[in-house]
Amino acid sequence: MPPQKIMNPRSLSRRMRVRFVGLATWAVVVLLVLVLGAVNFFNTYRAEREIHTVLDVILDNDGILPSGIRFGENSVLDAEPEQPFQTRYFFVSYDREGSIESLRMDHIAAVSEENALEYGELIRTGIKDSGIIRRGHAFYAYRKTVTDDGRTLIAVLDSTRTFSSLQIFQSSSLAFGILCTVLYVLILTLLSGRVIAPFIRNMENQRQFITNAGHELKTPLAIISANTEVIEMMNGKSEWTDSIHAQIKRLSGLVGDLITLAKVGEQQDIVLTEVDFSGAAADAVAAFGPLAAKEEKKLLSEIAPDVTVMAEEKTLRELISILLDNAVKYCDDGGDILLRLSRTKRKKGAVLEVSNPYADGAHTDYSRFFERFYRADTSHSSEKQGYGIGLSMAQELAKLFGGNISVAYRDGRIYFTVSL
Fold first, then answer.
1. pLDDT in tens, 96-116
2. Rounded distance, CA 54 to CA 69, Å?
3. pLDDT in tens, 52-92
4. For the domain 270-419, what is the CATH code?
5. If DSSP states are collapsed to H, E and C, what string results for the chain?
6. pLDDT at 229
7. 90 and 156 in contact (C-beta within 8 Å)?
8. Is the pTM of this model over 0.70?
9. Residue 334 — very low, low, confident or very high, per pLDDT cuts 50/70/90?
10. What is its EC number (predicted)?
11. Residue-wise pLDDT tens digits, 364-407
């Protein structure tokens, strides 16, 4: 498989702009859908209610829509005195046996008597008491009722203008929503650079500060180490000099981790090649085996053969080492550490799982495990050496390969899973 280049981490500004515009656009789209949807729903509901009101009046008056009738206190029909004369409808009544009693068609011209009888029979034998019949571009709303003496009354109202208006309004709403979204995206894209510029500048300054501070700290640490060695040469070793060396080693490790973490976000384009994941995992298990044995812990592995992924080999090995180091460090005394590597179901990726018993993990906030400098041990005792940087680095490294890392706690064991 040919090498692949992943996105330069220096393009963080562009990625943040895309994400910012995407989230903001999503919020606006949801808002427009809710608002325009509510307006359309209200208009449709009001139109259907008015149609049913007119049909009920026609049925109640035996096929006639009286002039001067009041439809209701809040009805818009009362604001249109010409409504009874503009309304197009016909009325059909059937006796108990289903024979036609009367057919009133003096208020409609678009429907022939033959079609009216066809619609009436269709409605009479149908299940629904109300609904819409659509013929071509015409819409006919109907209402059916059965009287106490067994007669069937059917009123059919030509609602073409009403539904055409609703369709026009819906189309206009859709076009308006799309236009607003497009304009919003264009404006937001133009202004997003200014919005996120302070955040980018702050992140760059922070990274630069960490890198510079790390390099500056190396010099005094080297001097302290050299002076301590001179003291040992003059006066011999003591518990005090041993303690100084231990703290120098600890601080040097912290400085190295800080610089590495800063460089993760600053490194140039990374070329992804096909890497032997199985071999890298096996080498890491072999390297950490003696360390685990020294602490009387077992390091076990279940590594599927010939598992390959698109990654950068050195960085991938560093990712595995971070997880194993964390497992050895926090594994319960006498516990067993298990590294399991398998292919994904689609056989185009891999899943690395590192687990160990962790008795103190039952009430731990795992949502914060990948935060920088976070430690579950809030006392920050030095019994377990660490600064809460390793897992944050692991997450950054996994992202470099387009993967992700997660943590879970089950049955007294903590599981770190990397999917690539």
1. 888 888 898 888 888 888 898
2. 10
3. 888 888 888 888 877 655 555 555 454 455 666 678 889 99
4. 3.30.565.10
5. CCCEECCCHHHHHHHHHHHHHHHHHHHHHHHHHHHHHHHHHHHHHHHHHHHHHHHHHHHHCCCCCCCCCCCCCCCHHHHCCCHHHHCCEEEEEECCCCCEEEEEEEECCCCCHHHHHHHHHHHHCCCCCEEEEEECCEEEEEEEEECCCCCEEEEEEECHHHHHHHHHHHHHHHHHHHHHHHHHHHHHHHHHHHHHHHHHHHHHHHHHHHHHHHHHHHHHHHHHHHHHHHHHHHHCCCHHHHHHHHHHHHHHHHHHHHHHHHHHCCCCCCEEEEEEHHHHHHHHHHHHHHHHHHCCCEEEEEECCCCEEEECHHHHHHHHHHHHHHHHHHCCCCCEEEEEEEECCCCCCEEEEEEEECHHHCCCCHHHCCCCCCCCCCCCCCCCCCCCCHHHHHHHHHHHCCCEEEEEEECCEEEEEEEC
6. 79
7. yes
8. no
9. confident
10. 2.7.13.3
11. 767 667 766 555 554 444 445 544 567 777 887 888 777 888 88
Amino acid at 204: E
